[in-house]
Amino acid sequence: MSQSNNRPYPQGQRIPQGSRGPQRPASRPGQYSAGGAGRPPVRQGGNPQARRPAASDPRRSAPPRRRSGGRIPDLGKLLVGGLVAVVLAYMLQCMWPDGFPLKTKQDSGSTAVQAVSEIHSGGPIRINEVMSGNQNVLSIEDGSTPDWIEIANIGKSSVNLSGYSLSKTANSVTVFTFPEVWVNPGECVLVYADSRLRETAGEDLHAPFRLSSAGDTLMLFNDGGTAIDTVNLPALPRNASFARVDTSTWQVSNQPTPGMLNTEENYRALNEPANDSPVIMTELMSGNATTLADENGLYYDYIELYNRSGEAVNLSGWYLSDNPASTRMWRFPDVTLNPGEYLVVFASGLDRKEDVTHLHTNFSLSTEGEQVVLSNAQGRQMDSVTFDLLRKDVAWSRADDGSWTDAKQPSPGRANP
User: How many Cα neighbours within 13 Å face the side chain of 184?
Assistant: First the structure.
């Protein structure tokens, strides 16, 4: 019997320094060997009961790491991702047909569209005033209060704006082109920026874009397509306009003058009743119960107008309102008032204009009292009347000397007693 190959040294005996310890005889068939399968050989000089070296042992080589990103993406995922990108690009193109607005950082941390190059008109036609936060300064025929752009003729001759255009950038696809509109010296034309394109001569003009109250840009082109005037709008508070002072100077104004040149005199004219109006109000009733019926036999509040001049007055484009801060509330259709003639308009809120002999405003009068304003086509106040609480079938009547009093004998459509 051969000697054991793993005999230990006597207990407590130290292994001599440099000693290799007991040697293992050459392997025979059936025995484990260093290169064979099975249990690895015991280290020289080690305990036969010792464990295998830990994985952290530096003498043991770690398996090679798998390289990240080396996997080829699935072709189906690439196709789906590309399709999503195409659909997203199409949706963004529909949302911003003019392209994405360029942003520039402001000191306050807010953003605004990138400014256009400054071009100051050297001719008679120019952008004169802009409002991007119209709340109740100006209302139009349908009762809405759109933002507006004012074009002025500061020259000495009339100019036909046919072919002139407005846009927000030089390469914009949303462009407003003027029809045949003649502008006399000192006159202004309004274009409403409410995304409703209307370019018909003789009617209200509407641009196919809106203005941002946080800041925006605007460009005016002549009939040859050359930019002749530009403006960079700052952020504007509600009911404030950006008004031109001179050729190259603009300022934020709390005295807007839509449809008129930017002067303090015109602002007063828009907000103070004129003394020379050919048409005035002579009677009103806020509690009509049995006094005057409309075309359907119903009773509504009414306002009476009178032409005190010696000439016929066409009221087309004139306005009635019960709000002095929004004088262009209800617009008259094409109706002419002859000298000495009266016209009764029902303040019913029904907004009827088809039958000029039975007109109805889009507002009604308060029985507790309020102010009624008559304005001309330029928005200038032609007459104004304030009344207090009125009882049923009691009218507020104007005397020959211009004073007002309550009348228990109303006379709608006739001279006041």
Answer: 1
